[in-house]
Amino acid sequence: MASKMWGLQTKLLVEQYLAQMYPQLASQLTLFAEGWDYRIYLTSKEMVIRVPKNPWSQTHLQYEMAKLHTLSLPLDFPHYIKTSGALGVYPLISGKDLRRATPTDHMIRQLAQFLRALHQDTYLPQKTVISHHRHRWVKRFEYLYQETQEKIYPLLSIKEQRRTSYYFDQFLYDISQSSWSVSLIHGDLTPEHIIAENGFIKGIIDFGDMTVGDPAYDLAGIPIQWETDELALYAQQIDSDGHRQFYRRMKVLHTILHGLDQGHVQDVEQAIEMFRKGI
User: What is the CA radius of gyration of the chain?
Assistant: First the structure.
């Protein structure tokens, strides 16, 4: 049953699974949020239930739970209780995300300190391991470039295609020629995943895209106007070549590709307009 957990598409099925496998967690669930790869439920006991929607996210959830258990970070993050790995359960981090808020100077410092700790908590002792992760990171964007040419270029003007190609070609050349640090990264650090309360950041959530790669990528989802004081210093320290500017421009391509795959025409149209403004 655990291997089929990603196929549980309704709240009732999740409640039945919890009642059978983890009766201590059994309670009425409320759908809290839903993303591309997970449905998030909240129990009456303020426990968060992350339910994978596909086999890839189920596998990655097991990696996420195991990896987070080893980290020591200055901000709170999901502390998963031990389960079979078919779903993730952790105590709710109370507060509100920062999508509609302006962070204080203290919050900016907290965020910089969090990123320093996360990026320095990577143990890659062998040069061959570092080389492997660099190669894999470059291949990731070569594949994105290929998919963009095949699926998105037909929706762009010739001028927009050339502009996009210029950014990709320049980035792929620069990153292959320069020596850049490799570290554990959150992978989807945006205001939506930063939880604050009473003027302080309480925690960081949604490590579903956590991987090893370029730490500058974790700056791509943070509004550029947040890059002040200690966060600006850290950004310059880890990204003197300015890769985060490329990552910011290209992040929306994933939204376009996902929308095309799912047939979400309105999402695709909105994302393409955002992309046009960025290039």
Answer: 20
